[in-house]
């Protein structure tokens, strides 16, 4: 396993699902981890407790990453506790399907404010504190290769993450900072389980088209984040890495 000893990581939206799995995996590789959450302190505290029980170091910090001042406060909390920041995982996001006739302005702005603006605001707040070798890992989606019906807003946010990854890899590359995106396929996480059940026909079709024959689990994604965060990935930047079982 790649080592992250003496590195500090901030994972947004890390109280459950993919974010929680990434936070736990980064800590297992040796990083000190800041577990960001927006609403569920209990879930975030559980992630911290899991890390601590395995001998790792972590704290939970509340922040709405769609608000610039809260992003600044979040990064300040990281620096206050650990005095450095080496790894940023932009995982916070929302995911809702709606056909064209059901799209609302409120739903559009909720998606873009969190999924896209949040990624930009946290990276902006963190960037001045990165040193050469730092790694930014965005969480995109393989949905941008499919563009299924009723996903116009969500797919658009993840297409934006693809673009942001490429642009920021060029902006931050001269400082030795790497920016990559992990683009998962459909992943079974608690907050999406109702949606998965409602999309049973689509899920069955996805599984049938997936060479590895199943939808993903958070622990399928986490090891890729550990690799990208590590010095083993020192020559990788601007990449969209699809982790989707071959879909």
Note the main attributes of this structure.
single chain; alpha/beta; Rossmann fold; 7-stranded parallel sheet; 45% helix; SDR_fam; NAD(P)-bd_dom_sf; 3-oxoacyl-[acyl-carrier protein] reductase; Sc_DH/Rdtase_CS
Low-confidence stretches: none
Per CATH, the class reads Alpha Beta
**Spatial gap, N to C terminus:** 26 Å
The Cα radius of gyration reads 17 Å
Shape, principal axes of CA atoms: globular
CATH superfamily: NAD(P)-binding Rossmann-like Domain
The CATH topology is Rossmann fold
GO molecular function, one term: oxidoreductase activity
Organism: Bryocella elongata
Pfam family, one: adh_short_C2
InterPro entries: NAD(P)-bd_dom_sf, Sc_DH/Rdtase_CS, SDR_fam
What does this structure look like?
With 247 residues, this protein is of the alpha/beta class. The protein has a single domain, classed as Rossmann fold. 45% of the residues lie in helices and 15% in strands. It has helices at residues 17-28, 41-53, 68-82, 105-126, 152-172, 193-198, 200-209, 218-229; strands spanning 8-11, 32-37, 57-62, 87-90, 135-139, 178-184, 240-243. It has a 7-stranded parallel beta sheet with strand order 3-2-1-4-5-6-7, sandwiched between helices. Strand 4, helix 4 (105-126) and strand 5 (135-139) form a beta-alpha-beta unit. It is globular, with a radius of gyration of 17 Å. The mean pLDDT is 94.
